[in-house]
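Hi R.,

As promised on Friday, here is the backbone we talked about, encoded as structure tokens. Could you run it through your design pipeline when you get a chance and send me back a sequence?
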């Protein structure tokens, strides 16, 4: 019996919120770096990290598309915590039954003037049409947890005890919804106190997303499937007997949707509701899925609750939490929606323990697996003591002395006493050994590599801080408009990856730093503008420096049927960066439904050219190379034609994998690569094993299909619907088969069926 195969698509699953972790490639082949640094971190630091909720607000610009070793590493999910005041349990936004306004209030709701307390959020909710105050509207704030309240009779709200420096924030009532805002705590300045600005949320009629879910196993509608919006929304709905779920009250915004159903693997897609055109009517076809149940404990048998569990599925450039992002008090976790016939790596991390990565593959004969994972404690890290002096060589009180490890939350920190002295215990080993990072206001930071010793007799060090450099500046656009809220970060090799100083510009576009080392560069970014990276600015000058940001570019176009010239109304677009005559596509696609076939891709870098990969049901995949990104008013529309897929011309390949004695090999991983360029022997690009095993090869412009299966009990496999006039190659591996390739050096002919027997080399080969 041949196993079902399909053209592998990217799947990402969100539970609660993003965190940075290892990518699939780093787990299976080599370490990858994060696609976009966040304030307080950098790309080097993203190479490692225990899954942890981010503590900095999202950057206001898009990440750079992934390359072979630069893959998006976003994992969605985090435990729910209690807000000061009432606790909020994690639950979907109400979309059925009681109206949204019936949600219980969190904290106090008072009709009073804005509060300048740093941890208080105040505001009002009104109708966009006429400014009328809306009573009983549900107000939601989300960072790493969800906080909600309702407006009073005057449409006012107040949330106290906010535990984050930033939130996504919006309001809703019935089918009315406000645009989502990114609310950031303002630092104290000459004109304003520290705290959150007053918020005004305007409600207008929302949009409705109708989702159809089918089973690729039974080819029937799936009743009871759950469609869930991604971070930060988390609204959900179940499908009925017709396989349809409806999510109402949505903003004019982009959404991620995850779909799960019993006995099936989860699926994900993205939908853009921000345009004025028709709302997409997405369809999901879920493949067969299986279940993993596990337990995490110490060697002594102690069960370890609170352990972070993250899954990495081969070919998916994201990690994701399953149904339990943390182990319970019995050390147990589970996920019932893993794909079959696909390698999954489980990342297991707990503070003060050494991380573990465990690999498994679920298949038809064994759709459920029980696993046990044992964690070892991290050995003690040693101690250090010493004194910090200032630029005058006198002891410096109040300096911060910190030690960082390789994980996001591995930190030891203290401040010096009145004599400039400090002591730190149980230190972490970082990327360059055991290091101390020392900062103080007005002085340049210092870092020292040290050798720790025993806690009862720690080695003594002396660290001197030099005078810091200052800078004042402002950020504006090319028209001279001052840009409030732009992010300005100072970057230097002297900063550990967990720490990058950054500020946001005030209402006059101004920013300043006063404690910088020599040789810093700056990164400046703002919403709807291109980032300025590695910017060298004059330090210690008498006049403010001026940073001018350019608006981001767009690509516009129309998708049409090649034969009739009529618009194709539903399609997906992946954008890629051109590398010579090739391109690497960002797997984050845009699903578009447009009555006239038009599209606009925003937030691109002006002056760069992009390749667009367009896919639509019933059509052959098409790539449009070298499309320039320009300002909106200057962007010339590109016309992209799609050719209908003629099933009579599609090819088939069947085969069998045997060992050197011709015994069939079951459960061997098989990857079929259908490409426009001839396959090559060896491990050289463009078909290297790192790309094959991670699934990133599917993102290359010269790969038309990247198909995944495993051999059945007879060692057999089969691939249908292959694009004709292309080159074929098979990569395979397994417990009884070392890595190997099968190459077809001639192009396939339309409508042909081929078969082959692959003999895996023996142990001594």
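Update: got your reply. Pasting your designed sequence below so it's all in one thread:
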């Amino acid at each position: 019996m041949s196993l079902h195969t399909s053209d592998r698509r990217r799947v990402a699953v969100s539970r609660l919120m993003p965190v940075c972790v290892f990518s699939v490639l780093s787990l299976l082949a080599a370490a990858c770096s994060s696609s976009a640094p966040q304030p307080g971190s950098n790309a080097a630091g993203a190479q490692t990290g225990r899954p942890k909720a981010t503590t900095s607000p999202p950057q206001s610009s898009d990440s750079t598309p992934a390359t072979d070793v630069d893959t998006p590493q976003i994992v969605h999910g985090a435990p729910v915590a209690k807000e000061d005041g009432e606790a909020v349990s994690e639950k979907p936004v109400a979309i059925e039954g009681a109206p949204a306004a019936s949600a219980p209030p969190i904290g106090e709701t008072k009709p009073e003037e804005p509060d300048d307390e740093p941890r208080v959020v105040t505001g009002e909710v009104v109708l966009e049409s006429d400014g009328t105050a809306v009573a009983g509207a549900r107000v939601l704030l989300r960072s790493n947890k969800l906080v909600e309240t309702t407006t009073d009779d005057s449409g006012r709200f107040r949330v106290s005890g906010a535990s984050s420096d930033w939130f996504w924030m919006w309001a809703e009532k019935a089918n009315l919804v406000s645009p989502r805002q990114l609310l950031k705590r303002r630092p104290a300045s000459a004109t304003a106190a520290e705290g959150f600005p007053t918020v005004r949320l305007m409600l207008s009629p929302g949009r409705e997303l109708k989702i159809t879910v089918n089973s690729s196993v039974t080819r029937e509608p799936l009743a009871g499937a759950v469609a869930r919006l991604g971070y930060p929304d988390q609204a959900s709905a179940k499908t009925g007997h017709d396989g349809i779920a409806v999510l109402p009250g949505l903003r004019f915004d982009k959404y991620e949707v995850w779909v799960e159903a019993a006995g099936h693997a989860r699926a994900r897609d993205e939908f853009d509701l921000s345009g004025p055109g028709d709302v997409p009517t997405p369809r999901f076809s879920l493949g067969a899925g299986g279940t993993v149940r596990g337990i995490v404990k110490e060697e002594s048998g102690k069960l370890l609750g609170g352990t972070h569990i993250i899954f990495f599925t081969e070919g998916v450039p994201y990690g994701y939490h399953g149904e339990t992002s943390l182990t319970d008090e019995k050390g147990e976790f589970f996920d019932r929606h893993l794909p079959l016939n696909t390698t999954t790596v489980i990342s297991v991390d707990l503070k003060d323990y050494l991380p573990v990565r465990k690999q498994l593959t679920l298949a038809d004969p064994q759709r459920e697996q029980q696993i046990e994972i044992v964690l070892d404690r991290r050995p003690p890290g040693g101690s250090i003591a010493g004194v910090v002096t200032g630029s005058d060589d006198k002891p410096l009180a109040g300096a911060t002395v910190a030690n960082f490890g390789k994980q996001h939350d591995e930190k030891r920190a203290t401040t010096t006493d009145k004599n400039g002295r400090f002591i730190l215990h149980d230190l972490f080993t970082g990327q360059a050994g055991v290091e101390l990072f020392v900062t103080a206001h007005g002085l340049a930071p210092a870092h020292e590599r040290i050798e720790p010793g025993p806690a009862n007799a720690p080695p003594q060090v002396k660290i001197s801080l030099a005078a810091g450099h200052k800078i004042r500046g402002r950020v504006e656009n090319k028209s001279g408009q001052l840009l409030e809220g732009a992010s300005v970060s100072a970057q230097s090799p002297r900063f550990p990856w967990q720490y990058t100083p950054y500020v946001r510009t005030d209402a006059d576009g101004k920013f300043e730093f006063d404690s910088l080392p020599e040789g810093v560069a700056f990164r400046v970014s703002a919403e709807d503008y291109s980032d300025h990276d590695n910017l060298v600015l004059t330090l210690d000058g008498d006049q403010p420096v001026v940073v001018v940001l350019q608006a981001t570019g767009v690509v516009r176009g129309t998708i049409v049927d090649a034969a009739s010239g009529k618009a194709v109304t539903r399609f997906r677009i992946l954008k890629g960066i051109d590398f010579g005559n090739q391109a690497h596509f960002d797997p984050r696609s845009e699903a578009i439904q447009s009555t006239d076939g038009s599209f606009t891709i925003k937030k691109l870098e002006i002056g760069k050219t992009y390749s667009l990969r367009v896919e639509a049901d019933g059509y052959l995949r098409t790539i449009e190379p070298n499309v320039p990104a320009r300002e909106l008013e200057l962007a010339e529309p590109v016309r992209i034609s799609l050719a209908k897929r003629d099933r009579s011309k599609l090819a088939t390949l069947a085969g069998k994998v045997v060992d050197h004695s011709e015994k069939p090999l079951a459960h061997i991983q098989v990857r079929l690569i259908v490409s426009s360029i001839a396959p090559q022997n060896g491990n050289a690009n463009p078909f290297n094993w790192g790309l094959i095993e991670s699934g990133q090869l599917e993102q290359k412009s010269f790969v038309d299909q990247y198909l995944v299966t495993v051999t059945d009990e007879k060692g057999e496999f089969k691939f249908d619907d292959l694009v004709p006039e292309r080159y074929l190659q098979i990569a395979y591996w397994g417990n009884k088969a070392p890595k190997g390739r099968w190459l077809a050096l001639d192009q396939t002919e339309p409508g042909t069926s081929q078969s082959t027997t692959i003999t895996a080399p023996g142990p001594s080969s």
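One thing I noticed while checking it: The first strand starts at residue 6 and ends at 7.

Thanks again,
M.
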